[in-house]
Amino acid sequence: MAKAKKNKSTRKADIANRMPLKLNPKRLDPETSDEAINVLIVGVGGQGVIMVSKVLAQICQNLGLQVKQSEVHGMAKRGGVVFSHVRFGKTVWSPTIPKGKADVLVALEWAEGLRWMDYLRPDTGIFITDTKRIVPPFACRSRILGADIGYLKDTPDDIIGKVAETFAIDATDMAAKEGNELAANTLLLGALSTTLTFSNEVWREVITQMVPPKTIDVNLSVFDKGQKWIEGSRKGEPVEGSAFIPLVQPEDHPVRTTLSIIEEWCKGCDICVKMCPERCLTLNKDQVVELADPEECTGCHICEWLCPDFAISLNPALNPPPNPIVQEAVA
Amino acid sequence: MNKHVMPQAEQPAEQGNQLDKIRDFEIQDYLRLDLFPHFMCPGCGHGIALRALLWAIHDQGIDKDKLAIVSGIGCSGRVGTYIDANTYHTTHGRPLAFATGLKMARPDLHVVVITGDGDCLAIGGNHLIHAARRNLDITCIMLNNEIYGMTGGQVSPTTPYDRFTTTTPAGNIEPVFDASRLAEAAGAGFVGREVTIHVPRLRDLISEGLDYKGFSFIEIMSDCTEINGRKNDLGSSSEMVLGQTRSMRPADFKYGEYDNNVVDHPFRPNSMNTGVFVKSDRPEYGESYRELVHDIQKKQKGH
Fold this sequence. Notes:
Chain A contains 10 helices and 11 strands. Chain A has helices at about 10-15, 50-60, 110-115, 170-180, 185-195, 200-210, 215-235, 270-275, 300-305, 325-330, and strands at about 1-5, 35-45, 65-70, 80-90, 105, 125-130, 165-170, 260, 280-285, 290, 310-315. A 7-stranded mixed beta sheet of chain A has the order 1-7-6-5-2-4-3. The longest helix of chain B is centred in the C-terminal third of the chain and has 18 residues, at about 285-300. Chain B is globular and about 70 Å long. By secondary structure, chain B is of the alpha/beta class. The interface between A and B is medium-sized, with 26 and 35 residues.
């Protein structure tokens, strides 16, 4: 699904025909360019952002170019934000990319990519992104089933026109089909390689050095897939893995469950009060549990399951609305 | 001999199915409501274990008329009383012996034994090892609260080192039994251990044990809050339940080349391991017995 936009008329035509336009096939050449080439790689901890930037930096070093890489990963191990700036060329001064100057933005996670989009050059920037969505815990502030989830609702169609060229690839799914979903970052490297002038041999050699020995075959095959994906998409051929399942956010109608308490059976052991994640139960003056804050109850069943006296039962909510984001987050 | 298996990683089931599974189970269908509230102390883990057992029975789709609960003496023995099925309250330490007779006579019944640490390991220790040796199709649920609760808090074979009880006023110095290892060594076909705080996991473990054809021994780490907890200052009921997560090693814990049930010293377990320890394909005793009888009868008719 290559979306390339220059003006309004081509954009409309593209939407109408669903045919990607062949635009901007020029590759970025560090040898001829006076300015440094800027590649920004973003994602979530654990996805391999640093590995992608290391491969790119190593190639530049091997070719005798100046290269500066600057990353933030700190507390991001497993689940936090990670970004890495890679700048290379004949001479590079600053290690960081200013806003609006990145030539290529590689995003390993959908929302992260959209968050960094304003770093791209507005006229020529290329946006390569995985459509993989990782819902962070703080996007699920309300734990009530069916409640609104604060994850970005944009689809690839929504970013048409905002950048020069966008490639939204379901890289994680494609890599999983090849045998290892962790190789999704190499698939995006393959996609990235189509925007630069480095030869295939150089890419493959450095990837072979960088990845764990057991995964070399998988990584090289997904690298090819990434390249083919971009080439096919630029030619307008149908490409696999381009399906983007839109996030259907249900209308905000949280499922309310009701808690019923058999007071005669409660012995006031306090387990439910202390274990409730929402702190919505209390013991009253008779040392019997009561639901102090019914609005807060999410129906998680913990009090029901841990009650040794079977005094609490949760009336099941019937037919909760299907929530694809929750299912994705759970899976 | 016993074949050790790796505990199966939980398959991420579809959320819809999980919700149905939760909604489907109504515990009051399985209880003798006229006996409630039950006699157990506030915060006693046996109640949570009873929920998990009934839930597993529900999941297995076992008919209440085909279910026989055999229980011994003690707090654990009284748990069986509250189940609305065929229940059999037997003498101290002998529920496995009674259950063996019952299962031999009525192989169509699902026989579940509820027993405690004192009942099963001290008074009925011999019955346990022989039931495990025979591998008769019985599910033995041992509620391990590490003390004799009903009689006032005497030391039991699983009371940990240094614990104060009424019979060890200066602290316990007896080495303890690791009940799961004992059952495994005696030949039990299925051995597992779980804590009460992880109710769904406990349910799945019991469910697997009920499904297993042969002797399944399930050790449930339960809290005695009033007798054991109070005397040893182990905290309130909720603190004891939460404490289980600190003192247990989860099923996925790996230690060296072994899977998960590793003790540093025999008969002196370090942090307890949870999960399925043994699932073997030993022949089931009742089946072998009936085959033998069948063969003999055939021969006699032939003559």
